[in-house]
Amino acid sequence: MSVSGAPPEGPLAIVCGAGNMPYRVADAVIGRGRRVVLLALVGWADPLQVERYRHHWARLGQLGRLSRLARREGCRDVVFIGALTRPAITQLRFDLAALMVLPRLIKAFAGGDDHLLTRICRIVEDRGFRLLGAHEVAPEILVPPGQLGRHAPSERDRADIAVGQALLAATGPFDIGQAVVVAGNRVIALEAAEGTDRMLERIAQLRREGVLKLRDKSGVLVKAPKPSQDRRLDLPSVGVRTIEAAAAASLAGIAVEAHGAVTADLNEMVRQADAAGLFVVGVPAGEPIRGDTRGDMRGDMRG
Amino acid sequence: MSVSGAPPEGPLAIVCGAGNMPYRVADAVIGRGRRVVLLALVGWADPLQVERYRHHWARLGQLGRLSRLARREGCRDVVFIGALTRPAITQLRFDLAALMVLPRLIKAFAGGDDHLLTRICRIVEDRGFRLLGAHEVAPEILVPPGQLGRHAPSERDRADIAVGQALLAATGPFDIGQAVVVAGNRVIALEAAEGTDRMLERIAQLRREGVLKLRDKSGVLVKAPKPSQDRRLDLPSVGVRTIEAAAAASLAGIAVEAHGAVTADLNEMVRQADAAGLFVVGVPAGEPIRGDTRGDMRGDMRG
């Protein structure tokens, strides 16, 4: 459909979880001249921030209420954004519409994350909405390629990044958290249900206890989306907390798949990394950086 | 070389690390009519158990002393067995012979575990010894195939085992700890530098905190050797502690690659698993068990 022939867009419905990301996305969309309506999830969205926008509150599981609110506001496009820890069934409030699809929801919860999200996508689309990725309406939240701060990865770090990328490519089909820490060519941690922050805490602890004997400021966190992942719902995110956790684990830096992860405030994250002496690089998907491609990587250097 | 034409075998030198495994191996070798000499590593081997055998003490890193002792005792064959946490360089005592190969040792320590062990093998063989795997001289320490205790894996557990085996096959080339926990088709933990026991502790903790919401007695620990691993030095081991940790993590059971892992006391391990309500199965390498192969698995049932 050409831009000129496109039907007039209604406002964008943004279903808001925790963190700053929903407001960053809302601001970016408003900056492009489109109205937004926040559908804020009780217990996750930040009331102080939500206040600043046209909004309604709903509970996770109130599918009927969310649908009615979005329709009443004239929204056809919906974005889900913000952290949602995998909820317990007891934390959900199901309304009638949700009860109608409960068997599908239960099936969704029984599988891995991908499974869950894919089914939720279908349920939303079956109700007549168009589900968009936050990065589609606000591409500025994507991590760009290249060296993003003051510090650059060493040759050794680049080798560790290549190992991490290869490992994530191998584990991609398995629907697990896509983050790994490599130090001196050795894989020292792989993320699954615990999440990136806890994985980094584990490294800090193993180092303190002397189980891991590595020199300070060594090792790289490598993060990428799962190949099978529906990017509209669940791109990995990095931020100031990632930098803090990586610094506490005494890593040399972090490497994130360029355009494959989102961040609520890239500039603040890079400032923190600069101050902590960590590098941050966006690495093109499927193109492991190597010692001999330094020139390419710096081509897109920032700050 | 035919058995009849084989040269007379001298005693077997057993370099002993921590745990009960060295004495289990020594007893098995003695039971086959061959003499043994224990070369016990100070700080790792258990003095009370070592006492029961012909033995000498040495420190890890005293390569010259270990070689002299083994030669003086007429040993050509050497087995390394027992737990050795990756030592810090400062914990090692290098004698002159070790200093001669120090550059190779340092290189060995810089890589992953496989790398380390492969290089140590070469150093030992360059000194004129024949390095054997403990399971070659004492095959009774290998985990056999089939259901090993009173409890059997459910269909769901079998599906989890198949996922775990497939994932370990995918991560095999990366020289990382080969253990994974799968629950309801979802990979919830992957082992790297932390080791199996700590990985299982993590699951217990994530369950306690409600981060992992699984029904009790669900999930399977799947353990296999790395495809690239030199089995003479580093087959994975399971034992009573594995069962305790799996029970604390509220798993349904453990699946170990048959003939691909060792255990110091299979009967005691199986007794503990029976008491805790956990299944223990030995799964043939490269043949993921499925729901429709139950008959095959039970073909080799024990106790």
Please give a quick description of this structure.
Two copies of one chain form a homodimer. In chain A, α10 (240-248) runs parallel beside α11. Chain A has twelve helices and eleven strands.
Q: Specify the biggest β-sheet of chain A.
A: 6 strands, mixed
Radius of gyration of chain A (CA) equals 20 Å
| Secondary structure: helix percent of chain A | 25-40%
Q: Give the topology string of chain A: H per helix, E per strand.
A: EHEHEHEHHHEHEHEEHEHEHEH
Task: Tell how many strands the DSSP assignment of chain A holds.
Answer: 11
Biggest interface, residues from each chain: A-B, 37 and 37 residues
Strand sequence of the main sheet of chain A, in spatial order?
6-11-10-9-7-8
Question: Are there runs of chain A of 5+ residues with pLDDT below 50, and where?
Answer: 1-5, 289-303
Mean pLDDT of chain A: 83
Share in β-strands of chain A:
15-25%
- Which CATH-level-2 architecture of the largest domain in chain A? 3-Layer(aba) Sandwich
What does the oligomeric state look like here?
homodimer
Give the number of domains of chain A: 2
